[in-house]
Amino acid sequence: MANWIPLWLHKLSSPPVFYRFAGSLRPWAITLAVLLGVIALYGGLVLAPSDYQQGNDYRIIFIHVPCAWMSLFIYGVMGVAAFIALVWRIKLAEVIAMASAPIGAAFTFITLVTGSLWGERMWGTWWTWDARLTSELVLLFLYLGVIALYHSFEDRRQGARTAAFLALIGIINVPIVHFSVNWWNTLHQGSTIRLLGPSTIATSMLWPLLTMMAATKLYYIASLFGRARVDLLTLESGKDWVRQIAQNEVRG
Amino acid sequence: MIETRRPGLAHACAAVLRRDLTLAWRLRGDMVLPVLYALIVTSLFPFALGPENALLRRIAGGVVLVTILLAMLLAMDAMFRSDIEDGSLEQLMLAPQPLAVMLGMKILAHWLATALPLIVVAPLLAGMLHLPATVIPVLLAALLLATPLLSLLGGILVALTAGTRRSGMLLALMLLPLCVPVVIFAAGALAAAQEGLPWIAPIAWLGAALVLAVVLAPLACAAALRIALDS
Amino acid sequence: MNGASLSSFFAMGGYAVYVWPAYGVFIIVLLMDWLAPQFRRRRVLREVRSRMARQDGRKARASAPASLEEEGRGEGLRLP
Q1: ipTM value of the model?
Q2: Which key words are in the record (chain C) (predicted)?
C-alpha cells in the first residue's frame, strides 16, 4: 500500500503546513462554490418550470434541501473530528471540530427559516411541530450548546476538547430524538412537511438541486478553512510562523 | 512499608453516599428550595389559564413533568460544585477506586436529595391541577424512571462544565436536546393513561433508557470530568 | 428579457413574499458566516503585531542584560 498517504496526513496536521495548504485551496473552493451557486440559482429560479400543483413557491427547495443536508453532514464531520481530537489529541482535529460548529449552526438556521416560510405557504402557519422541523430545532440547540461550551472555557484547547465530548454525546442523541419525535407525532397526529414527496421529480428541477448541493459543500470547505486558519493563528500566536505572517501582512 | 488494608469498593461506595447525604441533610434549606419552586410554578398555571377543571385536567400531566424537570435543573448546577471548590473531587479522581462508580454514587445521592422530595410532592401538584386519581400511579412510575435518567444525563453535563465558572444557563442549553426524548416518553405515558389507552410501551422505553444510562452515564461522566479538569 | 417578464419573475406568481425572503436569509447568513472570520483574522494579527512591538521596546530598553528575550514567547493569545 502507498506509504505516503499517512505520511502526508501527518505532515498536514502540523499547523503551519495546514495553514498554507488551506490558504492555497480556499480561493478555489469559494470561487467554484459561488459559480455553481449562481448556476444553480439561475436553473432553479429561471429555467425550472413552475410546479403544476404548488406554483412558484416550491423554488424554496433549491436552498432548503441542500441546507438541511449540510446541517446533518457538518454535524457528522464535527463528530468525526471530535472523536479524533479526543482519542489522538491532534490540535488540528480540535480546530476543525470547533470551526465546523458555527457553519453548521448557520446552515441549520437557514433550514429552519426556509422551512417555516414554506410551511406558512403550505398550511398557513409559520411553525408546526412536525418531526423533521422539531429534530432540526434540536440540532440547532446541540450546535449552540457546543459553541457555548467551547467559549465558556478560558483555555481554548481545553474548551475544544470538552465541547468535542459534548458533540459526541449529541451524535448519539440525534437518532434518539428523531425516533422519539416520530413516535410523538404518530401519537398526536401531527402534519408532516413533504418538500420532496414520493412523486417523481423532473430533471429540470433535479439538476439545480444537485448543483446547489455541490455548491454548499464547496462553500463549507472554504468557510471551514477560513475559520480553521484564524483559529490556528490564535492558538499559535506566540510561534514564529505567526509572527512572520503578521509582519508580512502589514507590508502587503 | 506499612501494610494497610485498602477499603473495599462497597465500603467506599457507602462512604461516598453517606458523606453526600449527610452534607445534603445539613443544608436542608437547599433541599426544600426545588420543592417550593415546583409548588409556586404549578400554582401559577391556574391563575394564568383560568380555573376551568377540564382545561387544567388536560394539561396537568405535562405541567407537572415540566415543572419537576425545571426544578431539577435548578438544583443540578450544585451537583459537584462544592466538591470542586474544596478539592475533594480531585481526591476522588486520584483514589484507587474506579471514578465512574464513585461518581455514580454521587449522582445517586444527588437524586435522593433533590428528585425524591419532588416525586413525593408530585401527587399534590397533580391534585392541584385535577389530574384524575387513576393516572397518579402512572405519573409516579414515569417520574421514578424519568428523574434518575435526568440526573444521570445532567451529571455528564455538570462534569463537562466543571472547569468553567458560571454554568447555569449553559447547563439548560445543553440539557434541552438530551431531555427531549425523556419528556416525550414520560408525557406520552401520561397522555395515554389519561385517555385510557395502554401506557406500558413508553414506560418500557423509559426503563430501557434508564438501564442503559445507569451503565453508561457514570462512565461518560468520569471521562467528561477527566477532560474538563485536565490541564 | 423585457420589462413585463422581469417584473413577473420578481413577482414569482404571487409568492414573492415567501420565495425572496428565503433566498435573502440564505445569502445574508452565509455572507455573515464568511465575513466574521475575516474580521477576526485581522484583529488577531493586529494583536500579534502590537505584542511584538511591546516586546521589541522592552528588549531595546533592557538591551545590556538581554535576559528578557524569551519572555512572553509561546503563551497563547486570549481572545473573548
Answers
A1: 0.86
A2: Cell inner membrane, Cell membrane, Cytochrome c-type biogenesis, Membrane, Transmembrane, Transmembrane helix, Transport
